Amino acid sequence: MVEPVRWRRRVPLWCTVTALAVVLGVALSGATKPGTEVDFLQSGHWVFNSALQVVFHLDGASGTLDAQAAMPGAEPGSQVVQGETGGYVVGGNRIVEFGKSDLEAKKSIATGTDERPVALEVAGGPYLVYRRAGRIVRLGDRLTTVPAGGGLGEPVVTTAGSLWVHQPAGGSICELARDADRLACPAGAPGGHTGGLTVVADRPVFVDTTTDTAHPIGADGLGPGTALGVDAPPDARFAATDVAGRIAVLDPPRRRVHLVDTGPARAAPVSVDLPAGDYAELASAGEAVVLLDRAKNSVLTYDSRGALKKNVPMPPGEPRLAKGEDSRVYVDSHDGGHVLVVGNDGDVRPVPVGGPPTPVAQPPPPPRQPQPSEAPPPSQSPKPPPPAKTQRQQPKSAPAQPQQAPANPASPPGAPPGVKATAGNAAITVNWGAAAPNGGAVREYHVSWSSSAGGGSKTVAGGTRSTALSGLSNGTTYTITVTAENVAGRGPGSGATGTPIAPERSITLSRGSPVTTIDDCSIPECAYMRVVAKGFDPGQSYTFVPHATATSYKGGSATKTAKADGSITFEAFHFDQIDETVWVTADGLKSNPIVWTKG
């Protein structure tokens, strides 16, 4: 099942030097606690090759594969994280734990959700953060689940092993300290402010995109804000750690990345216009920022001065960024067959992950036929020589027997082709093509979406080719993934992004249908006002009030609910005063005025 001899268990020299430096630094500063242990960094990166059903360990320094273990049945697209003694193959529905010393699968843990978590490797971890469910899981000898009380933004960690999360709905900023089993929330963002977390000089920082300021987080709450010097939109994304002391700010709609210095020297920010593409993820490799272009399936790196270092393509699929404890950034292809290793300086090294899979179980070999010079074992009767056996075989029609062998079992479906996201008002319509069934009819498609404002998922029947996602946040970019499932399981996903945008709000007034049944309204002057409103929040109710230059007019009001597309159309408010001007207001918005005529 495994090949443990390929695993080199020696600690790299640079890890030993780093650990000694930490010991000396702590001793000099007095910042340690009695009994605190030295943490050795987990080097390298594990990746799961879905086609081979094998996990491989990649030595980031040399770019070589030095260990592997078979993981039959692990879900396609699973990511792998490592702790001190074990590794974890994390899929949408379950987690498979394996030992790093013996490379044996230990146990399988059901997650109770199909949400793909954010995985973080750090001392005391690793951690899985289920942002939509508002749940944090610490893996290790003792699995710990910590509820967070609501949806979460992008998490960050410090080298000491503390995990920090932001709750966008309530604004709370909370810490899960190493070995703690509950959150402590020392800070909070101002009400109604948007933003996210990053780590600068190993200290958590909240970036407020409403005021465009960065605030260090301490035991007493948010520290004083430092101006970014750039306009960070509400849906801005931040690298989890600084880039040579600068905060990396991604502005997806404008395809721009900013590198902002918030230190005492306060160098001017650097802004880089990105090539045409779809940018939704970024990470820091230390001295360089790493960006993922999902439109072209390529990885771009820029140094801290904004100069392009590399632009490297990836195989088709949906790649995934991961930050290792060794400070390198690893970019996995969706099927785990290819990894890009991004070094501290932004240099990129492609590493194919393949080779024959480690055998899981082999059928027993057929009995070896004795050679002519060999005598049969004493306990067995001599077998007839091959010519005699050939003469007693069935007629020539017998070779057709191989056709009776069972057909190859089904494998998970292929990735759905042509995934397209069409954005509307607080909604996105998703379309896709039929996935290759691979021996088993597609019975379901799973559609999931995620953003800085949260996400969700839904399941539709195998014959469905489109679905509508509603209740989304306008101005927020959503990453949408569609996967197909058959009897053998789920296949790889295909993705697209979309940004719902509310149309400009407007109220258009015109003369409506004539009225002949109201006694106090003259005919033929009497008619209703026709109101057409657009760009309002779907599902929300609004009160419309008519107005006129005729001081005696009192038209009442009408409350209407916006449709899914944000529109409201109705007729109301009868009127008959010729040459007077009328208009309608709702939610602080005024319609066009019209002069009333006989019609």
From TrEMBL:
Region (Disordered): 308-422
The keyword Transferase appears for this protein: no
Coiled coil: none
InterPro entries linked to this entry: FN3_dom, FN3_sf, Ig-like_fold
Compositional bias (Basic and acidic residues): 320-337
Pfam families tied to this protein: fn3
Annotated ranges, domain Fibronectin type-III: 412-505
Sequence ranges of Low complexity compositional bias: 389-408
Keyword Hydrolase annotated: yes
Residue ranges, compositional bias (Pro residues): 353-388
Record keywords, A-Z: Carbohydrate metabolism, Glycosidase, Hydrolase, Polysaccharide degradation
Domain of life of the native organism: Bacteria
Record protein name field: Fibronectin type-III domain-containing protein
Taxonomic lineage of the native organism: Bacteria, Bacillati, Actinomycetota, Actinomycetes, Pseudonocardiales
